[in-house]
Amino acid sequence: MATLLNPARQQALWRDYLELTKPKVVVLMLITSLVGMFLATRAGVPWTVLVFGNLGIGLCAGAAAAVNHVVDRRIDALMARTHKRPLAEGRVAPLAALAFALLLAVLGMVLLLSFTNALTAWLTLASLLGYAVLYTGFLKRATPQNIVIGGLAGAAPPLLGWVAVTGHVGAEPLLLVLIIFAWTPPHFWALAIHRKEEYAKADIPMLPVTHGEHYTKLHILLYTAALLAVSLLPYVIHMSGPLYLACAVVLGGRFLHWAWVLYRGSRPHAAIRTFKYSIAYLFLLFIALLVDHYLLLNL
């Protein structure tokens, strides 16, 4: 009765459950999934695969995110960036969040099995379990290389999109996975430097906590250089054309610039600026892949 008489609280509950899915992260993942779908074919992507395939992948990603909220609720309560999350503040109960995650995962799997193919569904499930169980439940607290090893689960969306259209794994989607895999460490380690004291307080062995900031900055620089090299491979294997090559060089050069600025310590707040740029970098790089693909088709 109290809930029915309090519309504001109903809205808050809706927002709480939406927040459990980490919608901004899921949107970025779905952009890479969409690009994987369109790159997989010279014809149009069937609308059922486009809509329900991405919806299924998104629901499973949201389920993994909700499990992450449950497992990390005590850590989240200690960190300024996460202390207002629904479970950290007690607005959603752990069992309710797990039930919500299960519902999302089941709905996502049903959609993928119904509208794409079994390989897409099982690869998506493997990605879900890799993030929710392997990374969140074990690696995050076990090793400073947590994000390197666990990053493979988060790199899967372009492969999932590709397989949803073609029904098989190929070298091209694995290259897209490699790009995100190489992008993940400098992306997260830049944030970890910015939030170093909070990770230390929560007893999470992120690289700047265990090995210091200088060591982490050096590895950000090295991984960013590797990412720049990997990002050129689609052009090398004739998967993309000169437009993508130009974008990859410019975007990667800018990322490398920020990694160098962070390494040198020449600007204040370089860590969080590097982190923010890394998000824009991945979004623009995959958009460049997509635009270049359709330009090649029209030549």
Automatic annotation (TrEMBL):
Q: Which reaction does it catalyse?
A: heme b + (2E,6E)-farnesyl diphosphate + H2O = Fe(II)-heme o + diphosphate
Gene name as annotated: cyoE
Pathway assigned to this chain's UniProt record:
Porphyrin-containing compound metabolism; heme O biosynthesis; heme O from protoheme: step 1/1
What domain of life is recorded for the organism?
Bacteria
What enzyme class is recorded for this protein?
transferase
Q: Which family does it belong to?
A: Belongs to the UbiA prenyltransferase family. Protoheme IX farnesyltransferase subfamily.
Q: Known EC number(s)?
A: 2.5.1.141
Q: Which organism is it from?
A: Pseudomonas putida
Record-given protein name: Protoheme IX farnesyltransferase
Q: Give yes or no: UniProt keyword DNA repair.
A: no
Which GO molecular function annotation, any one, does this entry have?
A: protoheme IX farnesyltransferase activity
Query: Which keywords label this protein?
Result: Cell membrane, Heme biosynthesis, Membrane, Transferase, Transmembrane, Transmembrane helix
The regions listed as transmembrane in this protein's record are 25-45, 51-71, 92-113, 119-139, 146-168, 174-194, 215-237, 243-263, 275-296
Q: How does it sit in the membrane?
A: Multi-pass membrane protein
Name the InterPro entries on file. Answer: Protohaem_IX_farnesylTrfase, UbiA_prenyltransferase, UbiA_prenylTrfase_CS, UbiA_sf
Report the NCBIfam families cross-referenced here.
cyoE_ctaB, PRK04375.1-2
Chief location category:
membrane
The places in or outside the cell where this protein is found are: Cell membrane
What does the record give as the function of this protein?
Answer: Converts heme B (protoheme IX) to heme O by substitution of the vinyl group on carbon 2 of heme B porphyrin ring with a hydroxyethyl farnesyl side group.
Additional observations: Carbon 2 of the heme B porphyrin ring is defined according to the Fischer nomenclature.
Can you list the GO cellular component terms from the UniProt entry? Answer: plasma membrane
